[in-house]
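If your schedule permits, I should be very grateful for your opinion on a structural question. I would ask you to consider whether the tokens describe a fold that such a sequence might reasonably adopt. Thank you for your consideration; the sequence and its tokens are set out here.
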Amino acid sequence: MPEPADATEPENATAAPATAEEVAWFTAAVREHSTALVRYFARRGPRQDADDLAAEVFATAWRRRADVPREAVLPWLYRTAGFTLANHRRKTVDLPVDEVPEKGAVRVSDDPELSALFDAELRGALESVGERDRQILLLHAWEGLDGEGLAHVLGISRSGADAALSRARKRLREAWGERLSF
């Protein structure tokens, strides 16, 4: 499975000119998936950045158009969007080098994905599952991905994606149950 580029990939100045078929494919991909990408970013960060971040993903898709699986364009875009969002978040945090937090030191409650949830109990349950489980659950619930789509985004097999979704749901149910028993 081709790996999506991260958003910092340099332009390839020696790339062959685009064919009419590539232009038609890209135009269709933008028309079909731009709203989904803008929503993806709007749910995960400042709304004012969503259009620009979606444009970055499409720029990467254009540069990497030969690598985008035609049967799984949207999952590839979501995977690339995850890298783009991570790069964007790193750019917006000004920290002196001696104050860089260890991995996992950022408070989950500061996560824009979770702050978009109005239900405090659901937000609390999602805070208590791991980051990967949260990513899987939100891709499934918000973006409508399951099975093959999740497999493409996560870079794993279809059966692995199904199992990961099942485990994430189980952990969320357990976290929800623990919160309700208090």
